[in-house]
User: Fold PP4R1 phosphatase from Vidua chalybeata.
Amino acid sequence: EPTVRTELMEQIPPIAIFLQESRPKFPTAFFEYLMPIVVRYLTDVNNQVRKAGQEALLILLEQDLVAQSDIENKVCPILLDLSAPDSDDEYKVEAVNIICKMASMLSRATVEHMLLPRFCELCSDGKLFQVRKICAANFGDICNAVGQEATERLLIPKFFELCSDSVWGMRKACAECFMAVSYTTSPEVRRSKLSPLFISLISDTCRWVRQAAFQSLGPFISTFANPSSAGLYIREDGTLSIRPPAQDVNSNSCQPSNNITVMSSSANAA
Assistant:
């Protein structure tokens, strides 16, 4: 019964946490018995079971309960198979979604060597616009996961493609994550390549794309500022934050000492 398998998946994360806390008594139980079930259910015939398996996997990754060897030898190969060009449409959409979500939880080397090539392929998927839209919406997170060198070498050309996609929803998604992409690049790429690209979005024929671009204008401009003097930085949750001057904080006891936070476009898209 699919409902039984779904319920089982929901219980996997708390069981894994218990096993981690009792590791001396159960040193290999999770890796030998539970992790194979999670991996198998990622390809289950029932979509509710697959969804529960995906959610369980993300929780396990977030809690750092999955060994690096299992990620590279068991999880990534399954996701690459599911997102292959000849894969079923529904499986492919789910796979690219889980790849984008887990990228921030994996090591940079794993993402760059195992997942980035497939992500670049999916950005140009001509069959399913849903796949391209997921890639566009999560583009900033992928850039942040792989760093500046891989972003400029592999991802920026794909970003140009998505920004000129015939589907306006794709261009809108790119406008919403523009600040996060810009933040990962060098000042020269930001000035010579991304600035003209942003102008094209802000002049787009679709009003929804233009509106999204105007909303991202301030955050995009902020990426040109010198962080040491402007106090601008990107927090781990994807928000653009400003550190208030120390003297301003100290001089006004009524003001909280918390950072002023402006939600980034990539966070809004999520």
